[in-house]
Specification:
Elements: H1 8-16, H2 20-41, H3 45-62, H4 72-90, H5 118-126, H6 130-141, H7 146-153, H8 157-176
Helix pairs in contact: 1-2, 2-3, 2-4, 3-4, 6-8, 7-8
């Protein structure tokens, strides 16, 4: 058994030394949960798989920049989400611009989502317009700040806040009006 299978630092070091079996192991240990992140953002499995591969290329290329401050998994998640949002930006995903005076700066309340099971929640999130969905996923699910979302997507911070607010309102409206999978 390789020394790096139980030691994250040794695994990263082996990957940096271009040990293909170490990177293969890194991939095997992390591809399923990173793929699930890609699936949350994408409408189909092929796009999610492509973004997963792009994410691992970025992880490999940037491995030397990981400084062991914070979690390695968190670092990989951030690279993956950044890769996803960058891909959407490159494809010309449009975000509605808004005036910063129109932004609601109150903390987002997502308690209304607790009434749904996972399948219903995923269904409703996938019905959101692309810009709203990406911001909602990055903020509410992956925990990025509006500033980080703005940097990753190339939009204004106020636009990120507006997209989140609109996504929340759209989801709340759907739930209040009992738009569930069974009714569609």
């Amino acid at each position: 058994m390789k020394d790096w299978k139980d030691d994250e630092k040794a695994l990263i070091s082996a990957c940096l030394k271009k040990d293909e079996s170490a990177f293969r192991y890194l991939y095997q240990q992390n591809n399923s949960w990173l793929y699930s992140i890609c699936l949350r953002y994408c409408k189909n499995k092929d796009d999610a798989q492509d973004l997963l591969q792009e994410s691992f290329i970025l992880i490999y290329r940037n491995l030397s920049s990981f400084n062991f401050e914070g979690s390695f998994k968190g670092w990989m998640r951030k690279i993956t989400v950044n890769c996803i949002l960058s891909a959407f930006r490159k494809k010309g995903l449009q975000f509605s611009s808004i005036n910063n005076n129109q932004v609601n700066n109150d903390p987002a309340d997502f308690s209304f989502l607790q009434t749904l099971d996972l399948e219903e929640l995923n269904y409703l999130i996938n019905k959101l317009p692309a810009g709203r969905k990406q911001v909602f996923m990055a903020y509410a699910i992956d925990g990025f700040s509006h500033k980080e979302i703005a940097e990753m997507t190339g939009i204004a911070e106020g636009t990120s806040k507006s997209q989140l607010h609109d996504a929340r309102k759209q989801l709340q409206f759907a739930i209040e009006n009992e738009f569930t999978i069974a009714k569609n």
